[in-house]
Automatic annotation (TrEMBL):
<keyword id="KW-0378">Hydrolase</keyword>
<dbReference type="InterPro" id="IPR004013">
    <property type="entry name" value="PHP_dom"/>
</dbReference>
<dbReference type="Pfam" id="PF02811">
    <property type="entry name" value="PHP"/>
</dbReference>
<feature type="domain" description="Polymerase/histidinol phosphatase N-terminal">
    <location>
        <begin position="27"/>
        <end position="101"/>
    </location>
</feature>
<dbReference type="InterPro" id="IPR003141">
    <property type="entry name" value="Pol/His_phosphatase_N"/>
</dbReference>
<dbReference type="InterPro" id="IPR050243">
    <property type="entry name" value="PHP_phosphatase"/>
</dbReference>
<protein>
    <submittedName>
        <fullName>PHP family phosphohydrolase, histidinol phosphatase</fullName>
    </submittedName>
</protein>
<dbReference type="GO" id="GO:0005829">
    <property type="term" value="C:cytosol"/>
</dbReference>
<dbReference type="GO" id="GO:0042578">
    <property type="term" value="F:phosphoric ester hydrolase activity"/>
</dbReference>
<dbReference type="GO" id="GO:0008270">
    <property type="term" value="F:zinc ion binding"/>
</dbReference>
<dbReference type="InterPro" id="IPR016195">
    <property type="entry name" value="Pol/histidinol_Pase-like"/>
</dbReference>
C-alpha cells in the first residue's frame, strides 16, 4: 500500500537499544479510576503515582457507560470540575469510549465528546456485538474516522480479529495515533504479544503515530510502559512516532485535532 499523507510528527530514525533504554515517556494518556467500576484507585492517587514516576501529563479516561459498572453520562458532563493540575501533574479529563456497533458508533453523545479534553476509543467484548474480521475492522476504522476521536486503543487484543495492517496504514494516512497497550502485553492476553508485534511492525512500515498506554486500573501501574518499550525496541519504532514522549507534542496534537472538528451549537 503506498502512503498518501504523512502526519507532520512522523519523522526520525529508528531506535537502537541504548536509545530505548534512555527513552522517557512523560505522558500516560490511558488510565482508569474507581469511577470505571473495575479499577481501584482515585484520580488523586493516580496523580500522586504519576508524579513519583516523572509523568507530567495524565489522561483520566474512564470507560463509557455501556461498560458494566461504568459511570453514567452526567459523570462525563461534569468533568469541567476536575483541576487542571494535581500533585504537579497536568490532568486531561476524558473517556475511553466504547464502539457499540458494526457502524463504529460510540456510547457517548457528541455534545459530551465535544467538551472532553481527551477521547480514546476501543473495542470491548461486553459492549460490542462482535463479527467477522471485516466487520470488526470496519467498525474500528469508522470510529477512527470520527472527528471526535483523538486516539484508538489496544488493537492487538485477540478478542476480535482485525486487519492490523489496514489499521496501521490508515493511522498514518489520517494521522490518528493508535496505542501499544502495556496492560495487554503484561498479561499476555491469549496472544496479545504476537498481535501487538505484528501491529507495531506495520506501524514501522507505514510510519503512523503511536501512543504507549499503561491502561492502569490501579495507581501503582500508572506510568508503567515496560512491556510496550520492550516491543518498541524489538521492532525499531522511530522515537518521533511515539506521540506521548512529550507533553507538548500531545497537547499540540490535541489542539490541532479540535480545530478540525465540526462546529456544533
Amino acid at each position: 500500500m503506498p502512503m498518501k499523507n504523512s502526519s507532520a510528527i512522523l519523522q526520525g530514525e529508528t531506535l537502537d537499544q541504548g536509545e530505548v533504554d534512555t527513552l522517557e515517556i512523560k505522558v500516560d494518556l490511558h488510565t482508569h479510576t474507581i469511577s470505571s467500576g473495575h479499577a481501584y484507585s482515585t484520580l488523586a492517587e493516580n496523580a500522586i503515582a504519576a508524579s513519583r514516576k516523572g509523568i507530567e501529563l495524565l489522561g483520566m479516561t474512564d470507560h463509557g457507560p455501556t461498560m458494566p459498572g461504568a459511570p453514567h453520562l452526567y459523570h462525563f458532563g461534569n468533568l469541567g470540575i476536575i483541576p487542571e493540575e494535581l500533585h504537579a501533574v497536568k490532568i486531561l479529563p476524558g473517556v475511553e469510549a466504547n464502539i457499540t456497533s458494526h457502524e463504529g458508533e460510540l456510547d457517548i453523545p457528541i455534545r459530551y465528546l465535544n467538551q472532553m479534553k481527551l477521547v480514546l476509543v476501543g473495542l470491548h467484548g461486553i459492549c460490542y456485538p462482535g463479527g467477522t474480521a471485516e466487520q470488526n475492522t470496519e467498525a474500528y476504522i469508522k470510529a477512527m474516522r470520527n472527528p471526535y476521536t483523538d486516539m484508538m486503543v489496544h488493537p492487538g487484543r485477540p478478542e476480535f480479529e482485525l486487519d492490523l495492517e489496514r489499521i496501521a496504514y490508515l493511522s498514518a494516512e489520517l494521522g490518528i495515533p493508535v496505542e501499544i497497550n502495556n496492560s495487554s502485553l503484561a498479561n499476555e492476553k491469549l496472544g496479545a504479544w504476537g498481535n501487538c508485534r505484528r501491529f507495531a511492525k506495520y506501524m514501522v512500515q507505514y510510519k503512523g503515530p503511536v501512543i504507549l498506554g499503561s491502561d492502569a486500573h490501579f495507581s501503582d501501574l500508572v506510568g508503567d510502559f515496560s512491556h510496550a518499550l520492550s516491543l518498541v525496541r524489538e521492532v525499531g519504532l522511530a522515537e518521533e512516532q511515539i506521540l506521548n514522549c512529550s507533553p507538548k507534542r500531545v497537547l499540540n496534537y490535541l489542539a490541532d485535532r479540535r480545530k478540525s472538528r465540526p462546529n456544533i451549537s
